[in-house]
């Protein structure tokens, strides 16, 4: 996170934020495993602080079709959390949950959309619950909004807020394994700079 003066985040602090991200993703994986009643393991290939311009490339490019679940955060942590899945991976998860679905279809039925919203709601909630438990901070979450579009368009929604929040976001790529195929999901945490500082203070780093 690039900023001025004492607001910048150093390597030790980034390592702590990375560990929080890992634990949050682990919590989300457990919740997902329980939801679809299937054993799931997790790998975290990368955790990075990235600018908005770099985020779309990590996800596969600005024109990659994705499902995005966006939540607004308030209370002790202000900002946004975005969970992104490539469209084909979103369909695979929905198929695992429902036990049916047209894997070749480009459109999601109403029941598939509802299932994906439920998946997003539960794993995002589990992710944030882990952060709240670790930091002792209260996090209120909005009703999640779900959108299907190209990655560039999905990311433009939180990007509009970037000027108010900060110039970089914490991206945690999570690979869910032991399913029929490995599925990659991306947690993108975009707190305000003040919230980053509050997180670090809660952990005794500021």
Helical amount among residues, as a percent range? 40-55%
What is the terminal-to-terminal distance? 15 Å
Low-confidence stretches: 1-6
Per CATH, what is the topology? Chemotaxis protein chec
Our count of domains comes out at 1
Strand content: 25-35%
Please tally the β strands and state the result.
Answer: 7
Which CATH C-level class is it? Alpha Beta
Largest sheet: 7 strands, antiparallel
Write the CATH homologous superfamily.
Answer: CheC-like
Total number of helices? 6
Overall pLDDT confidence? 82
Judging by the overall fold, what is the CATH architecture? 3-Layer(aba) Sandwich
List the secondary-structure elements in sequence, H or E.
Answer: HEHEEHHEEHEEH
Summarize the structure.
This protein has 206 residues and is α+β, with helices and mostly antiparallel strands. It contains six helices and seven strands.
Describe this structure as you would to a colleague.
This protein has 206 residues and is an alpha+beta fold. The chain has one domain (5-202): CheC-like (Chemotaxis protein chec, 3-Layer(aba) Sandwich), CATH 3.40.1550.10. Helix content is 47%, strand content 27%. It is built from 6 helices and 7 strands. Strands 1, 2, 3, 4, 5, 6 and 7 form a 7-stranded antiparallel β-sheet that branches. Helix 2 packs antiparallel against helix 5. It is globular, with a radius of gyration of 16 Å. It starts with 10 loop residues before the first helix and ends with a helix. Mean pLDDT is 82; it is low at 1-6.
């Amino acid at each position: 996170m690039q900023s001025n003066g004492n607001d910048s985040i150093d390597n030790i602090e980034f390592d702590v934020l990375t560990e929080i991200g890992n634990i949050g993703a682990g919590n989300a994986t457990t919740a997902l495993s329980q939801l679809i009643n299937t054993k799931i393991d997790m790998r975290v290939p990368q955790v990075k602080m990235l600018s908005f311009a770099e985020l779309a490339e990590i996800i596969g490019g600005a024109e990659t079709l994705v499902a995005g679940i966006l939540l607004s955060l308030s209370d002790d942590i202000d900002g946004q959390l975005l969970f992104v899945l490539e469209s084909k991976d979103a369909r695979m998860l929905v198929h695992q949950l429902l036990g049916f679905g047209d894997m070749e279809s480009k459109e999601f039925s109403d029941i598939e959309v509802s299932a994906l919203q439920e998946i997003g709601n539960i794993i995002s909630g589990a992710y944030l619950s882990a952060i709240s438990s670790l930091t002792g901070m209260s996090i209120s979450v909005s009703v999640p909004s779900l959108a299907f579009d190209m990655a560039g368009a999905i990311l433009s929604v939180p990007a509009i807020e970037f000027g108010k929040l900060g110039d970089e976001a914490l991206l945690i790529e999570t690979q869910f394994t032991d399913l029929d195929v490995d599925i990659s999901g991306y947690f993108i945490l975009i707190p305000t700079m003040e919230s980053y500082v509050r997180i670090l203070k809660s952990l005794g780093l500021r």
